[in-house]
Amino acid sequence: MIQDKHREQERLAAMTGRLLARPMQPAPNIAPLGLQSLGLEDTERDALLYVPKSYQPDKPAPLMLMLHGAGGNAYGGLAPFLHLADAAGLILLAPASRFNTWDLLYGEYGADIAFIDRALTQTFSRYAVDPTRIGVEGFSDGASYALSVGITNGDLFTHVIAFSPGFMAPQKRHGEPRIFISHGKWDNVLSIDRCSRKIAPQLQRTNYDVVYQEFNGFHTIPTGVARSALTWFNKKGTER
C-alpha cells in the first residue's frame, strides 16, 4: 500500500516536471570513481555517471546533470564538461532521453522526468553531493529542457546552463536558480534572434540572475564558452 502510494506520487510528479530526488547521506560502501553506467536500463538508453578522481566521501562534491541534444545519447551529453570534470572536482550525470529527444519536446513531461529522478536518486544514495552546488546543463533541445526543468525544480538546482536553447516551458517556478545562456550569432539550426535574444531578456525581466554570452559561431559549444560556464558555476557555487 505504501509502495503503491509512493509510485503514484512519482507518477504525478513526473507529469508536472517535478523531481523528488534530493541529496542524502550516502551508503558507507566503496563507490567507484571514473566513468560508469548506472545500470538502470538494459538498453543503450541508460544513464552515465562520471565521478572525478579527487572525490572523497567526506567532502560533498558539486554535481551537474548533463542533457544531450536531439538524436544524442548519454555519452554525448557528457561531452561539454567531461575533460574539465577532474580539475573542477565535478560529478557529471548524463541520462539518455527515452526517445529521440526529451519528452517535453513531444508535448508534455513524463517518462524522461521519471528516469532522471531514478538516476539522481541512485547517484545521491552512493555519492556525497553538495546541495548548494547542483546544476543542470544542456545543449540545443537539451538546453531547452535544462531551462524548463531547472526553473521547475529551482529548489533542487542552484544553477542552469543552457547552450543554444530553442525555448523554455517550465511547468511552474520553484526557487531562483542562477542561469547561464550562450548562443552562436550565426546559428543556422536555432536562430539566435528567435531564441536566446528573447529568452534571456524574458528571464531577466522576471528577476532571474542571468549571464548571457553570444559568440561568433554556429550551433555548437566552443571550448572557451564551456570553460566560461564552468568558471561561472564554480564562482557562484558557494552562494545561494
UniProtKB/TrEMBL annotation:
The protein's name in its UniProt record: Phospholipase
Keywords recorded for this protein, A-Z: Hydrolase, Signal
Family annotation (PANTHER family): FERULOYL ESTERASE, UNNAMED PRODUCT-RELATED
Residue ranges that the Swiss-Prot or TrEMBL entry lists as coiled coil: none
Tree of life domain: Bacteria
Xref: SUPFAM superfamilies: alpha/beta-Hydrolases
TM regions (residue ranges): none
Source organism: Mojavia pulchra JT2-VF2
One GO molecular-function entry: hydrolase activity
Gene3D superfamilies, per the entry: alpha/beta hydrolase
InterPro entries (UniProt xref): AB_hydrolase_fold (IPR029058), Plant_Biomass_Hydrol_Est (IPR050955)
